[in-house]
């Protein structure tokens, strides 16, 4: 696989599905390590797709995943309320009427719920 820019939304979406495939192929212990350790989850997500900012071998022509970016993985088969431990709120522009109009949901939102630009518009 060719490494990609972290800012490339299509690459993030494809990497999300590949991450899910990896998690399904992992042993219980490997899967639990990603659930328990955000740094491990980030490393597994990035593997084969993106450089991490702290990687000394990162391609200077590609945007890496920033060090401050945090990954959390929750297993809904164990405890669906665990996902409630992390809440991210991206405020709409002050000039936007509230509530915002509803929109169509993209399938990747079933897995990745975050503040990437396409999900906040």
Question: Overview of this structure, please?
Answer:
The protein is mostly helical. It is globular and about 45 Å long. The model has no long low-confidence stretch (mean pLDDT 82).
Key terms for this structure?
3 helices; 121 residues; mainly alpha; single chain; 29% helix
Helix-strand blueprint:
Layout: H1 9-25, H2 28-36, H3 38-46
Number of helices: 3
- The total count of strands amounts to 0
- Spans of at least 5 consecutive residues whose pLDDT stays below 50 are none
Secondary-structure element sequence? Answer: HHH
Q: Kindly provide the radius of gyration, computed on alpha-carbon positions and rounded to a whole number of angstroms.
A: 16 Å
Mean pLDDT: 82
User: Per the principal axes of the C-alpha atoms, what is the gross shape?
Assistant: globular
Short description:
The protein has 121 residues and is an all-alpha fold. Helices cover 29% and strands 0% of the residues.
């Amino acid at each position: 696989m060719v490494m990609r820019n972290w800012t490339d939304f299509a690459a993030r979406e494809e990497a999300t599905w590949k991450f899910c495939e990896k998690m399904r192929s992992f042993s219980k212990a490997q899967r639990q390590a990603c659930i328990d350790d955000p740094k491990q989850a980030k490393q597994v997500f990035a593997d084969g797709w993106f450089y991490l900012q702290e990687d000394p071998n990162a391609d200077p022509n590609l945007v890496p995943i920033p060090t401050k970016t945090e990954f959390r993985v929750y297993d809904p088969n164990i405890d669906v309320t665990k996902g409630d431990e992390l809440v991210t709120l991206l405020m709409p522009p002050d000039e936007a009427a509230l509530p915002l109009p509803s929109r169509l949901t993209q399938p990747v939102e079933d897995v990745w719920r975050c503040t990437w630009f396409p999900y906040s518009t």
